[in-house]
Amino acid sequence: MADRGGVGFESKLCEPEEFVRRAAALARPLVFTNGVFDIVHRGHVTYLAEARALGASLVVALNSDGSVRRLGKGEDRPVNALADRMAVIAALESVSLVTWFDEDTPIARIRECRPDRLVKGGDWALDRIVGAEDVRGWGGTVHAIAFRHQRSTTALLARIRG
């Protein structure tokens, strides 16, 4: 998966097998979000900074390449491989830990780390956010963060392809 070549931010990369232990060591309240984060843009970094502001630590779980393909975003997606997407997200100051999931949803990672805050973008209705019922069940809260910058990787790729 990821070549950890010794760069500081790469210490934030976490294999799923290490996730329970690594997430347990993070400061609380723990915020969890997930996504593809294929071509990272201003909307992504603003969203992640706002998610982090809801707690002391931010965990980001990325869809594996296979999981992205099953989302139906296009035959050529993701543009960037999982290891590269993870490294870019890990390099962000707002992010504490980055892991991944191969399933269609991140429910296993959510249940493993039991976040205090579960966050998705403003295009998600609270009752449709995967894991919302679980998080509320153990006393956490669920948030949909409104988009401040209307950006879309899909729209950007369409523009590039002209």
Explain what this protein looks like in three dimensions.
The protein has helices spanning 19-24, 42-52, 65-70, 82-90, 107-113, 132-137, 153-161; strands spanning 30-35, 57-63, 97-101, 117-121, 141-145. A five-stranded parallel beta sheet has the order 3-2-1-4-5, sandwiched between helices. It is an alpha/beta fold and 162 residues long. The longest helix is centred in the first third of the chain and has 11 residues, at 42-52. The chain has a single domain (12-161), classed as 3-Layer(aba) Sandwich (Rossmann fold).
Task: List key phrases describing it.
five-stranded parallel sheet, globular, 5 strands, 33% helix, 162 residues, Rossmann fold, alpha/beta
Summarize the structure.
With 162 residues, this protein is α/β, with parallel strands linked by helices.
Low-confidence stretches: none
- Provide the domain count: 1
In the CATH scheme, the class would be Alpha Beta
Radius of gyration, in Å, reads 15 Å
Q: Write the H/E string, N to C.
A: HEHEHHEHEHEH
CATH topology: the name is: Rossmann fold
What is the number of beta strands?
5
CATH architecture: 3-Layer(aba) Sandwich
Put simply, the count of helices is 7
Q: Beta fraction of the residues?
A: 15-25%
Widest β-sheet, arrangement of strands: 3-2-1-4-5
Class per helix and strand makeup:
alpha/beta
The CATH superfamily name is HUPs
Whole-number average pLDDT?
91
What's the story with the biggest beta sheet? 5 strands, parallel
What global shape is seen? globular
